[in-house]
From TrEMBL:
It comes from the Eukaryota. Pfam families: COBRA1. Residues 590-604 have a biased composition (Low complexity). Residues 565-604 are annotated as: Disordered. This is Negative elongation factor complex member B. One of its GO terms (biological process) is negative regulation of transcription elongation by RNA polymerase II.
Amino acid sequence: DSGRRNVLVCFVASLMIKQRNMFAGLPELGISNGEDLKETLTNCTEPLKAIDQFQMENGILLPTLQSALPFLDLHGTPRLEFHQSVFDELREKLMERVAIIAEGKEEDRYRKLEELLEKSFPLVKMPSIQPVVMQVLKHLPKVPEKKLKMVMADKELYKVCAVEVKRQIWQDNQALFGDEVSPLLKQYIVEKEAALFSSDLSILHNFFSPSPKTRRQGEVVLKLTQMIGKNVKLYDMVLQFLRTLFLRTRNVHYCTLRAELLMSLHDLDISEICSVDPCHKFTWCLDACIREKFVDGKRARELQGFLDGVKKGQEQVLGDLSMILCDPFACNTLVLSIMRNLQELLSQDALPRDSPDLMLLLRMLSLGQGAWDMIDSQVFKEPRMDLEVVTRFLPAMMSVVVDDHTFTVEQKLPSEEKSSLSYPTTLPDAFNRYLQENRVACEMGLYYVLHIAKLRNKNALQRLLPALVETYNDMAFGDIFLHLLTGHLTLLSDEFGSEEFCSVVFDGFLLTSFSSKENVHRHTLRMLLHLHHKVLPSCMETLMKTLEPPKQSSEPVKELFTQLTEKLEAQKKSPPPLEETPSLDLGLHPVTVPTTASTPTTPL
């Protein structure tokens, strides 16, 4: 009856009216919404006819469709489902058309998109229409400022809009961009520190093992690259954030990110940015050196050309170049190249000061080591290298090499020809002094210690380690060096069964600062987790008492100590089988080659 029909109609109308906020923008486009239906139903005498009329006026305006709709009814297909499918199809077609227009070459393509934006923007809050509006915004190279402000002011709209739109918002709103970038920069530092404290302890797989290209595939670098796009202004903002954070924290990982970000944009061929960054070609050349872990003569000359090419009035570029050279991956490459260069000079009986390649490597290492001071003081001038590093420190370091070589040769002589020569225990005064007073010399000294450990030279290592207790700015107790040293010490795992060796490594070096430097505590525990079964039992017992974390220690230290305790307990119950010393053998077996006139017989 009519009473029931009226109740049903009112119920349907109330459902539509509840959605009125969603369809609030329709009247601006001349389309009826829930409010119009409410008014129609309120003033009409025959609600069913009024609804039919409303559907007729606001449905799909296609005359031939009206006669076809009853067939859908016969198949039990609801009108809503039909209209929704048509709507979805039209929306997809419209979004495709927007992309085609934007990618076209017509001069008025952006005018067309702006007109479509004006018509569709009032419906931006309508979930079914919102994707179309966002598609238009995405493809407009310059969104009207009024629309940008409306998107920025609405958290929901800002969240769903494309990164292309956000870039236009960010470039005029540094604080908002900083809020977006800050979590990524924190994540990057956390990831780098996690790598340094990794549970893996190996000389073959360490912090410096990943190639530059692999590192650039990291989540943070990719996200930052996407956020910047081709926008030079945003790129400059990120660089400024990195400089500020580097100054505030002295954390060299920000220097790594500066180089990685530029090379990530280089990989994508973003010439809009690479062409305006004066450090691009220098970083590109250095990146190739880092990939090879060596600076060859040709690339050394290229890098020197970039440094010498800094013109008067453009000295500020040195600040960015120094930051790129301060990247630990760059420093690692430079010092490894210096070590290789010194070995060649030693074999040729040549002096360090006579090698232009060595002097250039030292120049770049010095520039990188002085990055923080340069950016902090804003005095953009290459630091003057202390020539005594070349004339006093390097000869002193080479004398240590000669001492070791002399002793080794002496041991190979027949007993009747041997002298009473014992292995030296002290170091030249110049070596110790420069290790404490000069950061460039200290960096080379630390890498020489790593080189000695890699050669499994126990005598030289026992001679050198105590000297590292006092180094420039406590560089020997930095995370990067300790990460590398603990990995290299795995090559000497059998030596930990000697009380003398344990005393030098632990009492003579690591335990001298573990109580004041928690990172040293962590690295020591990391190493013992891998080598505890090799350490002399009496030393291990003493170490466990010494290394027990105080209450104020951080959770990672406590967790490492707990893991070590559990391993020792398990070892007491079931002693593990003897393990072989980790080998650097890559499994490549020698192949016999027939000797001919053209085949060299000297082993390489």
